[in-house]
Amino acid sequence: MKLSNEKMLTDISKLRTLSQKQLPVKVSYAIAKNISKIEKELLIYEQERQKLIDKYAEKDNEGKVVADKNGQIKFKDKENWEKDIKELLSIENEIDIHKFKIDELEGYSMTPAEIMSIEYMIEE
């Protein structure tokens, strides 16, 4: 299955929260396996993001990245930073998603947001 870097970044915290709930064994196992696979891909994303920060961020005399009073990184070339980070976020990764059947969730309550965050893990 193809998942963009942006989708994985959006979903990972929801999946971590969901993994703390009491869920059926097969569902919990699938979520845990998928978290592991997604985290591995996000390590690569984060390395590439750091390269872009290095390339576009303003730096002080010691070569350290400069941030504003709110802790936001200042960019010397904001237009190209935004273009490149958008491109990085849109890159799709092929991930072997571990799936489970929807009936495995029978008897367990989940919010619509939780179900939406795992919909690609549910087999038809």
Give a written overview of the molecule:
With 124 residues, this protein is mainly α. It has one domain (2-123). It contains 4 helices and 4 strands. A two-stranded antiparallel ribbon has the order 1-2. It has a two-stranded parallel sheet with strand order 3-4. The chain starts with a strand and ends with a strand.
Give the strand tally. Answer: 4
Helix content: 40-55%
What's the number of domains? 1
Distance between the termini: 14 Å
Q: Tell the overall outline.
A: elongated
**Helix/strand-derived class?**
mainly alpha
Rg, Cα atoms, Å: 18 Å
Unreliable runs, pLDDT <50, ≥5 residues?
A: none
Name the average pLDDT.
93
Q: Count helical runs.
A: 4
Order of helices and strands: EHHHEEHE
Q: Strands across the major sheet, in which order? A: 1-2
Note the beta-strand portion.
Answer: 5-15%
State the major sheet: 2 strands, antiparallel
Organism: Anaerosalibacter bizertensis
Protein name: DUF1617 family protein
Coiled coil: 35-62
Keywords: Coiled coil
Topology of this protein?
Layout lengths: L1 E3 H15 L5 H32 L21 H13 L1 E3 L5 E2 L10 H7 L3 E2 L1
Parallel strand pairs: 3-4
Antiparallel strand pairs: 1-2
Keywords: Coiled coil
Protein name: DUF1617 family protein
Organism: Anaerosalibacter bizertensis
Based on the model shown, name its key terms.
8% strand; elongated; 54% helix; coiled coil; DUF1617 family protein; 124 residues; mainly alpha
What's the short story on this structure?
This protein is mostly helical and 124 residues long. It has helices at 5-19, 25-56, 78-90, 112-118; strands spanning 2-4, 92-94, 100-101, 122-123. Strands 1-2 form a two-stranded antiparallel sheet.
